[in-house]
Sequence to fold (209 residues):
Amino acid sequence: FLQFVFHTYTAGFTLLNGNATTKSEGYLPHEKQIYYGLGAISYAACIGALPFIFMNRYTLKSSLTQVVLKRILPASLLGLMSAFTVAVVRSPEFEDGIEVMDRNGKVVGVSQKAGEKAVKETTLSRAVLFGTAFFLPAVLMHFVERRKFVKTPHALASVRMVLITSVLAGMLPVSLSMFPQCGEIKRADLEPEIQSSTEETELFYNRGI
Fold:
């Protein structure tokens, strides 16, 4: 359930903060986009919950297996599924294309290749943000528990929350600055009709968040 809530929030945030080319006044998401989004959220929640279901169902004797299933795998899957939901929710951007502009802000055309590049960049930044924000604290908590720096469950929960919050706060500006908000793409990498409509060697697009 918590996985479902998390991916629902991130999918909604992604939908609201994507490129606005396909949006107009009174815009509502495409019916297909809503179905895709719900499917992506459900799939991501199920995949993210698999390690915990496996741990509850089977008794794990190996300490290495416990570390992998309890610490490493859930954080890795969370980052991967966060990237997956971004790609699915923003799929209209590389299907329909997004606006590309010259240096003066004049719209030159609508490009699927620019849309694909924008979605790929946002997908990677989101994976880095959530993957690191949950992977690094999980590894650190393993050493904290092993060294027995903190013994009570409440103290361990507080330490875990502080670590996650600290890493997330540190990774947020890193994630946002991985790629510029106003992305650049070479004219030679765009569709022929856009290449023939301008002499600019580089064009620009809004990447979204």
Observations:
- Residues 112-147 form the longest helix (36 residues).
- Helices lie at 2-16, 31-57, 63-89, 91-96, 112-147, 153-177, 192-195.
- Strands lie at 98-101, 107-111, 182-186, 202-206.
- DSSP finds seven helices and four strands in the chain.
